[in-house]
């Protein structure tokens, strides 16, 4: 089967999990053509030479660690005319060089619009659709209700009318819309190969490096060892080690960590849960999907959800690690087999 696979370029979580699915599809004998942008394009092109086409995507604009809706809208509008022209040329390339039977999209618009133009079925594979297609079981505070409304509007506008929605999630929720299947998170082979141990350090991942006081906050817990990724530098500040990015080094530190402190990003939280690592989740403000992931971590007893990283919050989290570890023992996932079976079933009826 000829498959057009769309991967957004914002962040590498989409690319990392799409790489797993694309590899599986190729192993099953399918012919896959990929469209992506930015860093995701670079990563996927290196792994699937000759199969990946570069398009123009959009980028999130941050202001004081918060996603700026006005800045993102302005950036998108400013680049839209040029992006549309370049993407239209890519449409023509694909029309001449590749005739897909189906489109698979990981929350990516170009491939979806291509499918609508060509009258092709679409399979959605991502974690975001849970916001719209499942009944949330957490209390949404007043200050998050506007973010939830906006998130639902965005999710509903993405990939409407797809033939099947495969939603990856570490927390089960009641499905409220048809053609929707919940599957466990997509895990890369490198994570599946890890054998977790319990070391002395806490792994800290800080994606928004403008939080200038992070090191100072961590230094106020001198009895704890923190290994921090996100600043992309090698420095030691007492009990705080800043580490330059290395996939092998990061995975080693993840596998041997006693706990993980991160934002509300789905990929790392999912990997930590799979490895039974307690999670302290501090979501980036104004991103409801991150709020949801963090709230579910606390609801399930897998860790804590805080709005900021402070010494007191970290102390409260670390004090309860044994309880989080016990709750995590109930989580079980057999690799990516459930997803692959659901994907095979969806493709079989096209």
TrEMBL record:
One of its GO terms (molecular function) is glycosyltransferase activity. InterPro entries: MJ1255-like. The keyword Acetylation does not apply. Keywords: Transferase. It comes from the Bacteria. This is UDP-glucuronosyltransferase. It comes from Hymenobacter rigui. The lineage of its organism: Bacteria, Pseudomonadati, Bacteroidota, Cytophagia, Cytophagales.
């Amino acid at each position: 089967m000829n498959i057009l696979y769309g991967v957004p370029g914002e962040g590498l979580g989409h690319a990392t999990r799409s790489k797993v699915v694309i590899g599986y599809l190729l192993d099953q004998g399918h012919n896959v053509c990929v469209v992506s942008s930015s860093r995701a394009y670079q990563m996927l092109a290196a792994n699937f030479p000759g199969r990946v086409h570069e398009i123009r995507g959009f980028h999130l604009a941050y202001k004081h660690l918060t996603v700026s809706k006005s800045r993102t809208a302005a950036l998108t509008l400013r680049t839209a005319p040029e992006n549309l022209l370049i993407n239209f040329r890519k449409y023509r390339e694909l029309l001449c060089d590749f005739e897909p039977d189906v489109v698979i999209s990981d929350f990516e618009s170009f491939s979806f619009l291509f499918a609508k133009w060509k009258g092709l079925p679409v399979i959605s594979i991502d974690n975001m659709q849970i916001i719209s297609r499942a009944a949330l079981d957490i209390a949404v505070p007043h200050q998050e209700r506007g973010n939830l409304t906006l998130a639902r509007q965005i999710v509903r506008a993405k990939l409407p009318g797809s033939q099947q929605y495969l939603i990856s999630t570490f927390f089960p929720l009641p499905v409220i819309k048809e053609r929707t299947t919940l599957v466990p998170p997509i895990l890369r082979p490198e994570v599946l190969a890890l054998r977790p141990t319990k070391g002395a350090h806490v792994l800290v991942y800080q994606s928004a490096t403008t939080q200038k006081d992070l090191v100072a906050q961590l230094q106020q817990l001198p009895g704890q060892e923190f290994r921090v990724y996100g600043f992309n530098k090698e420095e030691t500040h007492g009990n705080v080690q800043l580490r330059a990015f290395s996939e092998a080094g990061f995975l080693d530190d993840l596998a041997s960590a006693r706990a993980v402190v991160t934002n509300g990003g789905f990929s790392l939280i999912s990997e930590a849960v799979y490895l039974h690592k307690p999670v302290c989740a501090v979501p980036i403000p104004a991103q409801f999907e991150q709020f949801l992931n963090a709230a579910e971590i606390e609801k399930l007893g897998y860790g804590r959800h805080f709005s900021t990283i402070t010494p007191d919050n970290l102390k409260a989290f670390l004090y309860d690690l044994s309880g989080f570890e016990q709750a995590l023992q109930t989580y079980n996932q057999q690799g990516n087999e459930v997803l692959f079976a659901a994907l095979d079933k969806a493709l079989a009826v096209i």
